[in-house]
Design a protein that fits this description.
This protein is mainly alpha-helical and 156 residues long. Helix content is 63%, strand content 6%. The chain is built from 7 helices and 3 strands. α4 runs antiparallel to α6 (133-139).
Length: 156
């Protein structure tokens, strides 16, 4: 079998498995305050803004993951992951971004290891990367790890 086809198949399978796991376990939704904060900021970015005006009444206690400071309302996290999720927000599918990043990271892993070692090592590594719970577990949620891994591996 052609090695390029195998690499493409593994990368696409990484995307598909991440999407399936996101659907099965999280119903394509956020599930805790960190991911809610990422989505909040991604929606702000999608509107072309860096922050919203703070609401006049925000309850007894504001979220510890969303800052309200000097009349501005924004996520407490660095903007990188929210900026990437913004592209998914445009299509009402922010869950697709971590899945795509997972597939692209597997491709970059292959390219790095093929250049550093050889094609056989690179093939074994992306297959191991594909079945790794850390890879698929991060590819199916909205945490920043899948985006971070992509950009870190892009510094090849």
């Amino acid at each position: 079998m052609n090695r390029k086809l195998v690499v493409i198949f593994v990368c696409v399978l990484g995307v598909v498995l991440s999407i399936v796991l996101s659907w099965v376990y999280f119903h394509f939704s956020y599930f805790e305050p960190d991911t809610t904060s990422y989505l909040f900021q991604a929606k702000i970015f999608a509107k072309g803004k860096l922050c919203y005006d703070a609401p006049s009444e925000y309850g007894f206690s504001s979220s510890p993951h969303v800052n309200i400071l000097n009349g501005k309302w924004y996520s407490k996290y660095p903007f990188g992951n929210a900026l990437m999720l913004m592209f998914g927000v445009f299509f009402n599918a922010p869950w697709i971004i971590p899945a795509i990043m997972t597939g692209l990271t597997l491709l970059l892993l292959y390219l790095i290891l093929r250049k550093t070692y050889n094609t056989n090592v690179a093939m074994i590594a992306i297959i191991l990367g594909l079945i790794s719970p850390a890879t698929l577990g991060m590819g199916c949620n909205w945490f920043s790890e899948s985006v971070s891994r992509f950009y870190l591996s892009d510094f090849r």
